[in-house]
């Protein structure tokens, strides 16, 4: 990470009150065949800069739908989704794409590009954002070092373990200095020992580098490591716990 | 995203599916190669024929014949003229009528009598066309082609003097001569006006062998004809009737040609047809344009098939990469960039295909030309044939650029729909795609 320790701590202090994600009465209705499914039934949520929020709930509770809205991958049927005070519903495709460049995604199934090496995968979002080859190369190497994969830079995803692939994915999510990271079951597809290492990495990013993290999980233990938990059942937030 | 990054991304995607991309490229290669080969051969052929016509075919001449068009003017109609059409006959003394027009654009005119016949030496007979002309006039009108290679063309010839085309003298193109200057050969034709028809012959003395003219002696001298003095033709064939009259004009301006054509048609009460060499050239060139268009059209079909192949592969590629497109969009790639990535893949295939296609089309054209040349030697064995023709395939920059544009264009157009579909994919749906 390029932000030196002191500066990042300072930023944390200054921006600790800044709200970067704000949801008002968020509703999302899908059509499953011809049957409408109310995935979200009026969700209100605030995420401050530097937060580490876990969205906990069983499958079908609407947590992934909420995450997609927070990540600007989708638009709500009703209600407002503000990211840094900008209403996502009002943005066109191009503006949404620009917004997504400033959001770091980490998926359950890693979603790396198989033909690219670890470094090329981390370079990809920077290439999309139009960074020069030299700049993104350097930054990709630094980021891979941060997630502890310095030795595996030139390996393709197929040559990496699940944990290693997820580290690459985290490095990729951090590439464009995102406002926050959106994680969908980041440890859902890796063994528990490696999952612990990934969790440590995520905590370290949040605590040391002041990276805001919004994570969806159905794992109680994992959620317990966050700063704040919102519990979702049937498309609504039923409980909020501050750890 | 920078252009070079889009390019390298697309290139990487192509390299991942080498065989498939290779086969798609092959489709473009075949289409472009067919177009380039056909066009460069026909253009070469046209250039060769036009060049030969222009030398053998003085542009400042008119060909007057009875009835049907320029057929008589080609010197191919060995049977007696087109007289059958209207019953109207053109006689040798019709030249008098033309000079009586006192048209200042007319320089001179001369009659031609020709018959199919044979020439015979001590060992064999060969078919030929016997052409009766005024040697002096003929030499002045066709000063470029009625030229002796060996001997001299007699300007006021004795009756038995003859001039032979190069292929009559050397029919096998191997210096194993059928006849040479100062040889005596038999001139034979079948007189069908008597019953039963009978062969008539006399011994001609070869005064000159013409230099080689090339494929066609349209209207003018030909490599495979034998020339006898007009007066001899009149008595030998026992007729005053001529096949054609060649009129030499002051120049080859369109106005001059039209003016004289009209005057002659009026003088003969519209019973003759007047064909200008220039008009024949124009007709030939428009015929060639049509042939080219037709052939290019056929070749374009193969390119169309290639285009459909591209569309097919791009749609398959789109399906396979739906998830990848979802990832790219989640990482902030814009719709038009996704479109460009897909179009770029197809354009790369088109570009490589077109480049290889142009090169292999050119090679193919040359191979065909060599094969054709071989056949030409074979065909040259027949004395009546126009002789072997050398086609030099012609690849103009226009054709090259057009082929390139066409190859790339077809690839891009057929990729447009799959690329557009890729660009319109919704990120969450694409990410969910298995």
| SSE class of chain B | alpha+beta
Low-confidence blocks of residues of chain B: 69-85, 376-388
What is the count of DSSP helices of chain A, taking H or I runs of 4+ residues? 8
Overall pLDDT of chain B, averaged?
Answer: 84
Please provide the ordered H/E string of secondary-structure elements of chain B: HHEHEEHEEHEEEHEHEHHHHH
Uncertain parts of chain A? 1-12
Number of strands of chain B: 10
N-to-C CA distance of chain B: 27 Å
Q: What composes the largest sheet of chain A?
A: 6 strands, mixed
Helix content of chain A: 25-40%
Strand count, sense and barrel status of the largest sheet of chain B are: 6 strands, mixed, barrel
Integer-rounded radius of gyration of chain B: 31 Å
Number of helices of chain B: 12
The dominant shape of chain A is globular
- β-strand percent of chain B reads 15-25%
Q: What oligomeric state best describes the polypeptide chains here?
A: heterodimer
Q: Beta-strand level of the residues of chain A, as a percent range?
A: 25-35%
| SS class of chain A | alpha/beta
Spatial ordering of strands, largest sheet of chain B: 2-3-8-5-7-6
What is the β-strand count of chain A? 10
Task: Name the pair of protein chains with the most residues at their interface, and give those residue counts.
Answer: A-B, 27 and 24 residues
Commentary on this structure:
The complex is a heterodimer of chains A (243) and B (434). With 243 residues, chain A is α/β, with parallel strands linked by helices. Chain A has helices at residues 5-15, 63-70, 93-100, 118-128, 133-146, 162-174, 192-209, 220-224; strands at 19-32, 35-48, 52-56, 78-83, 86-87, 103-106, 180-184, 213-217, 228-233, 236-242. In chain A, the strands form two sheets. Chain A has a six-stranded mixed beta sheet with strand order 6-7-8-3-9-10, with helices on both faces. Chain A has a four-stranded antiparallel beta sheet with strand order 2-1-4-5. In chain A, helix 4 (118-128) crosses helix 5 (133-146) and helix 4 runs parallel beside helix 6. The longest helix of chain A has 18 residues, at 192-209. Helices cover 52% and strands 17% of the residues of chain B. Chain B has helices at residues 3-16, 18-56, 94-100, 135-141, 166-169, 230-237, 254-267, 277-320, 322-330, 335-379, 397-423, 427-432, and strands at 61-66, 106-120, 125-133, 148-151, 161-164, 184-191, 198-210, 225-229, 244-249, 272-276. In chain B, a hairpin with a 4-residue loop joins strand 2 (106-120) and strand 3. The two termini of chain B are 27 Å apart. Chain A binds chain B through residues 68, 71, 73-74, 93-94, 97-102, 105, 107, 111, 113, 115-116, 124-125, 127-130, 132, 172, 176, and chain B through 1-2, 5, 9, 12-13, 16, 323-324, 326-335, 337, 426-428, 431.
């Amino acid at each position: 990470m390029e932000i030196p320790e002191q500066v990042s701590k300072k930023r944390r202090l200054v921006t600790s009150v800044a709200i970067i994600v704000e949801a008002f009465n968020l509703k999302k209705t899908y059509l499953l065949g011809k049957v409408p499914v109310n995935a979200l039934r009026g969700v209100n949520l605030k995420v401050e800069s530097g937060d580490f929020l876990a969205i906990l709930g069983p499958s079908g509770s609407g947590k992934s739908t909420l995450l997609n809205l927070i990540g600007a991958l989708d638009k709500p049927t009703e209600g407002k989704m503000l990211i840094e005070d900008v209403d996502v519903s009002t943005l066109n495709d191009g503006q949404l794409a620009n917004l997504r460049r400033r959001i770091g995604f980490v998926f359950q199934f890693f979603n790396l590009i198989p033909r690219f090496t670890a470094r090329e995968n981390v370079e990809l979002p920077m290439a999309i954002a139009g960074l020069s080859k030299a700049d993104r190369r350097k930054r990709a190497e630094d980021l891979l070092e941060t997630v502890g994969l310095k030795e595996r830079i030139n390996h393709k995803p197929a040559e990496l373990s699940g944990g290693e692939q997820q580290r690459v994915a985290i490095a990729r999510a951090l590439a464009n200095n995102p406002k926050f990271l959106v994680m969908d079951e980041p440890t859902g597809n890796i063994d528990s020992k490696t999952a612990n290492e990934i969790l440590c990495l995520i905590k370290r990013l949040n605590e040391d580098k002041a990276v805001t993290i919004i994570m969806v999980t159905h794992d109680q233990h994992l959620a317990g490591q966050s700063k704040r938990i919102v519990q979702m059942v049937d498309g609504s937030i039923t409980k909020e716990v501050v750890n | 995203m920078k252009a070079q990054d889009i390019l390298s991304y697309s290139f990487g995607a192509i390299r991942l599916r080498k065989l498939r991309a290779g086969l798609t490229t092959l489709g473009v290669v075949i289409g472009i190669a067919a177009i380039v080969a056909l066009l460069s051969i026909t253009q070469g052929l046209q250039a060769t024929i036009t060049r030969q016509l222009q030398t053998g075919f003085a542009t400042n001449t008119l060909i007057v014949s009875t009835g049907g068009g320029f057929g008589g003017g080609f010197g191919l109609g060995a049977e007696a003229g087109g007289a059958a059409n209207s019953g109207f006959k053109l006689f040798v003394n019709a030249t008098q009528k033309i000079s009586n027009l006192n048209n200042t654009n007319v320089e001179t005119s001369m009659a031609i009598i020709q018959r199919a016949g044979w020439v015979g030496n001590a060992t064999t007979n060969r078919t030929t066309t016997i052409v009766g002309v005024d040697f002096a006039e003929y030499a002045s009108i066709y000063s470029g082609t009625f030229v002796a290679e060996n001997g001299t063309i007699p300007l006021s010839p004795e009756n038995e003097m003859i001039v032979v085309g190069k292929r009559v003298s050397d029919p096998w193109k191997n210096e194993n001569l059928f006849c040479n200057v100062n040889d005596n050969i038999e001139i034979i034709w079948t007189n069908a006006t008597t019953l039963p028809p009978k062969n008539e012959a006399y011994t001609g003395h070869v005064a000159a062998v013409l230099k080689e003219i090339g494929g066609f002696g349209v209207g003018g001298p030909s490599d495979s004809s034998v020339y006898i003095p007009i007066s001899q033709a009149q008595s030998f064939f026992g007729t005053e009737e001529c096949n054609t009259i060649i009129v030499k004009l002051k120049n080859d301006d369109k106005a001059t040609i039209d003016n004289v054509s009209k005057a002659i048609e009026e003088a003969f009460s519209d019973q003759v047809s007047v064909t200008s060499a220039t008009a024949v050239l124009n007709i030939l060139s428009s015929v060639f344009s049509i042939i080219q268009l037709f052939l290019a059209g056929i070749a374009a079909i193969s390119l169309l098939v290639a285009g459909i192949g591209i569309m097919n592969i791009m749609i398959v590629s789109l399906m396979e990469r739906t998830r990848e497109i979802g990832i790219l969009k989640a990482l902030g790639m814009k719709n038009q960039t996704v479109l460009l990535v897909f179009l770029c893949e197809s354009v790369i295939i088109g570009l490589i295909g077109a480049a290889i296609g142009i090169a292999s089309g050119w090679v193919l054209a040359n191979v065909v030309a060599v094969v054709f040349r071989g056949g030409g030697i074979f065909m040259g064995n027949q004395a009546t044939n126009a002789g072997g023709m050398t086609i030099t395939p012609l690849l103009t920059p226009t054709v090259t650029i057009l082929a390139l544009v066409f190859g790339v264009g077809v690839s891009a157009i057929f990729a447009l729909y799959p690329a557009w579909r890729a660009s319109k994919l919704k990120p969450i749906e694409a990410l969910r795609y298995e």
